[in-house]
Amino acid sequence: MESATSRLLASAIQVSQGAEAKVFKAYLHPCEFASSSTSPSDASDGRTPILLKYRFHKHYRHPTLDTTLTKARVAGEARAIIKCLRHGVNVPGIRMVDTAQGVLGLEWIDGKSIRLLLGGGAEGEDETTEEETEDDSHEIEEEDPFDEYGISEDDAMRMIGTEIAKMHRADIVHGDLTTSNMILRHPSSAKGLQLVLIDFGLAYTSTLAEDKAVDLYVLERAFASTHPASELLVASVLKAYQEHMGKEWLPVSKRLDDVRLRGRKRSMVG
Amino acid sequence: MPGRVRKRSPLKLPERPYIALGLEGSANKLGAGIIRHDKDGSTTVMSNVRHTYITPPGEGFLPRDTAQHHRDWALTVINDALKKAAVSLHEIDCICYTKGPGMGAPLVSVALVARTLSLLYKKPLVGVNHCVGHIEMGRQITGAQNPVVLYVSGGNTQVIAYSQQCYRIFGETLDIAVGNCLDRFARVIDLSNDPSPGYNIEQEAKKGKRLLPLPYATKGMDVSLSGILTSTEAYTTDKRFRPNGDGEDIITPQDLCFSLQETVFAMLVEITERAMAHIGSKEVLIVGGVGCNERLQEMMGIMAKERGGQVFATDERFCIDNGIMIAQAGLLSFRMGFQTPLSKSTCTQRFRTDEVHVAWRA
């Protein structure tokens, strides 16, 4: 039997595919069956796009295991996003959740990822092509892509720091902070200019300074590997982060120094 | 890698055939292998001899006893390898031994043999990283060019990819290795250690039907396995557990083997897939003792196929620790001019895969 979710997926256009999920652009209220949607009705005019994150069936996994995992992950991601929303972190709003089918519907955000704006190339071509990206960045620097957003590069970095601090103060650890997972919402959109954190697939709740420090360390490494000579950028991110963390900054800062020394992983016997 | 021009390998064709002897003894297998690199760039496995220290069911191998086993068998195994290859030690170009990682005492006893042979026959020594040995042998046998490597054995669980003359670790276990997890469970349910506990788990798992819920612990590209072992062990004290299996709603050892395999292998395939998506590779190579497991190969094959790629795996001769892989990796670095002077011919229990300078690849 065809469910509303499968109909929605069938009408959607695939945007990208990661290791775990396919990402689609779809419309919750297409004119043909505007009344049949199972999700809570959206206040928009019906032509506002939404983003569908579809965790497709993995055939290598035992079907029972696959179903349990998909359900838990979709629900977990939705929970982390809701918690962020409650604490005023800029994240995409939730439009629908279908754990059985593995579909999470999120607010569509108009804008570009920080990775693209910094000229880091598309996802999936870092590491091996570091030298090539370095060459590309000279051409891009000719015009500042941030001009379109009416802010400077440094402003954007401060927005990143602020948003991460808000998230960490809510005891949410993102787990995959990279520049591709941050989107600068275009000033022309209804909510105006915002820095939005996306992809909470690896997020979890933790009060530990260690976990937050590792989160920041992952970000530092992501900057270093995709954007050559980005030390100043990271420094402004951390400065804004520090200002917004208040007295929570000190323990995280101490931990971050430790984590930098040892790396995310300890040296192991094997 | 799509859209990339393959760089020229820094490894020149040899001007004459090179022969290397490889000695391996980082765990309970003692191996000696002889490999030849010919002028046309081809590689011949001349001999590959192995002797395994097998403990009674329910027991693991202890460092001291394992080292004793290696000392007892070293001469037999090496002589056997030389005889099968029909070469004498005088014709060999270099002696390669495992520098690490592994168990201390067995490593030391094999290194001692290597040093002695080196002094007796005036042959240069080459210390080899065990993990790099596995990767190089896997690449040689399967012909995989630039794969994502899943290295799974009794002591290691790593997802590795090559980048800029280094095998970088993308993901790994945060606690015990997958082989360790399987072997220790085999000991809990008293499976035989002959030929290997992992093999017997695989056979038992084929008879299992019921998938029991176990923790599923992937953390980004890393996995955690110790909790799964504990949970699986806990089922053996469950009221429904029946070692001999009759009745309704029961848990048999076979079900536990099946559930354990399905869960940990799904985790391994998942982190491998993440690494593949991250670096955009379509080839996977499975190496290490657990790599012989056909269920793991099958699951990896399904994943690779769904991504439009393919999986490379080898059989027990090259998956399980052997001397030939040490000879292969050692000879590659020897041909690049690398030697280990006698004063530096030590062993180390901690030797990470990414510490090795892979001079022979572009």
UniProtKB/TrEMBL annotation, chain A:
It comes from Rhodofomes roseus. Residues 9-270 form the Protein kinase domain. The keyword Kinase applies. Residues 120-145 are annotated as: Disordered. Gene3D superfamilies: Phosphorylase Kinase, domain 1 (3.30.200.20), Transferase(Phosphotransferase) domain 1 (1.10.510.10). Belongs to the protein kinase superfamily. BUD32 family. InterPro entries: Bud32, Kinase-like_dom_sf, Prot_kinase_dom, Tyr_kinase_AS. The keyword tRNA processing applies. It catalyses: L-threonyl-[protein] + ATP = O-phospho-L-threonyl-[protein] + ADP + H(+); L-seryl-[protein] + ATP = O-phospho-L-seryl-[protein] + ADP + H(+). This is non-specific serine/threonine protein kinase. It comes from the Eukaryota.
TrEMBL record, chain B:
The lineage of its organism: Eukaryota, Fungi, Dikarya, Basidiomycota, Agaricomycotina. Keywords: Acyltransferase, Cytoplasm, Metal-binding, Nucleus, Transferase, tRNA processing. Pfam families: TsaD. It comes from the Eukaryota. Gene3D superfamilies: 3.30.420.40. InterPro entries: ATPase_NBD (IPR043129), Gcp-like_dom (IPR000905), KAE1/TsaD (IPR017861), Kae1_archaea_euk (IPR034680), Peptidase_M22_CS (IPR017860). Residues 46-327 form the Gcp-like domain. Belongs to the KAE1 / TsaD family. A divalent metal cation binds at residues 130, 134, 151, 321. Binds 1 divalent metal cation per subunit. Substrate binds at residues 151-155, 183, 198, 202, 293. Its cofactor is a divalent metal cation. Its EC number is 2.3.1.234. It is found in: Cytoplasm; Nucleus. This is N(6)-L-threonylcarbamoyladenine synthase. It comes from Rhodofomes roseus. It catalyses: L-threonylcarbamoyladenylate + adenosine(37) in tRNA = N(6)-L-threonylcarbamoyladenosine(37) in tRNA + AMP + H(+).
